[in-house]
Amino acid sequence: MTVSGVIVMFRKKALLTVGLWDRDMITEDIAVSWKLQKKFWDIRYEPRAICWMLVPESLSGIWKQRVRWSQGGQEVVLRHFDIFKDWRQRRIWPVYIEQVISVLWAYAWLVVTIYLFVTADTVQQMLVWFTYNSFALVLISHIQLLISLWNDARYDNVFRYYVWAAWYPVIYWMLNTFVVIAATPRAIRSTVKGGYATWNSPDRGTRRSSL
To answer: How far apart are CA 108 and CA 110, in angstroms?
Structure first.
């Protein structure tokens, strides 16, 4: 439900039909994707389109980037809840519901984690729960990773990165919990307040490119 902000091509007629980009949305690529879908334009992914890009190289840069992405996703959810009023939009209902559940999951995970740690009588009880929860997340993330690697292997030799990539979903899911929580008040405030959406770009490989 979003085009790639790094490399994307638009049909001019499609953009004009949806009124171009929203200047009050913090992630214009996600916002315009939803507008295109609601007007029944197709958004297709071309895996053979490969480009080189710069990414944040510091923890603060990654944090700022992910919070902005999460804020943009939540802004879209708040703006386009009217899709349930139109039966023709039913094909994107599951995507909308998944977005909402993802936000609720982040809050639920944090609340349950704090509750179990507070109510645990022994350190062993805390470790048992944490081990079980971690195992469940690792198992699900590995299944997702294997499916994605199998799909992308048709275009590139990605299986060699499995050992390193396997850790990413686990760490990211934990980080994403706090990202979502940090982004929620910003999304609500921007939706209510309105105005132009502005943001400062985090570091994007400047240290590496300067060498």
So the answer is: 5
